[in-house]
Amino acid sequence: MEAVQNRPYSQTLQRLRDAGLRPTRQRLALGRLLFDSSDRHVTAEALHEEAQEGGISVSLATVYNTLHQFTDAGLLRQVVVDASRTYFDTNIHEHHHFFNESDGKLTDIPADQISLSTLPDAPEGLDVARVDVIVRVAPAS
Amino acid sequence: MEAVQNRPYSQTLQRLRDAGLRPTRQRLALGRLLFDSSDRHVTAEALHEEAQEGGISVSLATVYNTLHQFTDAGLLRQVVVDASRTYFDTNIHEHHHFFNESDGKLTDIPADQISLSTLPDAPEGLDVARVDVIVRVAPAS
DNA sequence: GTGTTTGCAAAGTGTTTGCAATTTA
DNA sequence: TAAATTGCAAACACTTTGCAAACAC
Q1: What is the pLDDT of residues B52-82, one digit of tens each?
Q2: 0.85 exceeded by the pTM?
Q3: pLDDT band (50, 70, 90) for residue B120
Q4: CATH number attached to the domain at B1-91
Q5: Domain range annotation of chain A
Q6: Which of 57-96 (A) contact B at CB < 8 A?
Q7: Which nucleotides on chain D have any atom < 7 A from a protein Cβ?
Q8: What single string gives the DSSP state of each residue in B68-137?
């Protein structure tokens, strides 16, 4: 539509290319929202709203599809903390989370700030795929 | 309807009474399914099915309501591991979980088998309510 | 041009709710 | 009998899908 800042634009472009995803207008726009800052935790609904506010026209269905494509491509990670919504995290490295149950906000905990000693053996025939630590917090009473 | 084993029956009866819940036919039946064995992890759907198979007539809505009432009363705990279903755990003590992503089965990990060193401080104004460790496992390749 | 992607609206899932009928105490 | 509980069906929130139109290469 109009000129955009070029650096993040082309960063996202490259990211999409590397992932084998066609850099469509929608993917570029969502990619910029997601990747221009770091450690973002979004729900589909929230990202859709943010896009609308930014004057980007994308359907909610496309936001869902895009988030899943990004996840499959390894650009995002899903975080399960709340049974009623799915969060997507732009931090794809090993780390954990604070989850504020009262406002639904997630905050990263760097992997080196939590150490798990003595992890029990996985049940037979199974391999550990990932360990998630969720520190559920609430307003101090 | 017919005679039942008396021990578990009255255990559940007592549990409900202690929790201030009227021991209705449905609650007793679901309570027996849940508490007669230990460390059960059920979804509403699965418990409903189990009840039907056992010849107990309960509506799915009542199963949901009952699971929540039991949870509010401290007899059950909710476990969030999968964005698409809610699990209820009969183990209400501190512990963690293996979650088998391929079949959706949960297994308890006793609290003393995992030790978390150096938990970072909660963000200001917030208290830690609970720490959940989820070890996601998958069939060995 | 050809195959991919989008957007809509419709369908799907799991879950919750309103309310009359039933049950418990 | 009064108050709590149940069950149904309808409503819900979030998410996925089918398919024609639009777009990228």
Answers
A1: 999 999 999 999 999 999 999 999 999 999 9
A2: yes
A3: confident
A4: 1.10.10.10
A5: 1-91, 93-141
A6: 78, 80-83, 85-86
A7: 4-10, 13-18, 23-25
A8: HHHHHTTS-EEEEEETTEEEEES--SSEEEEEETTTTEEEEEEGGG-EEE-PPPPPTTEEEEEEEEEEEE
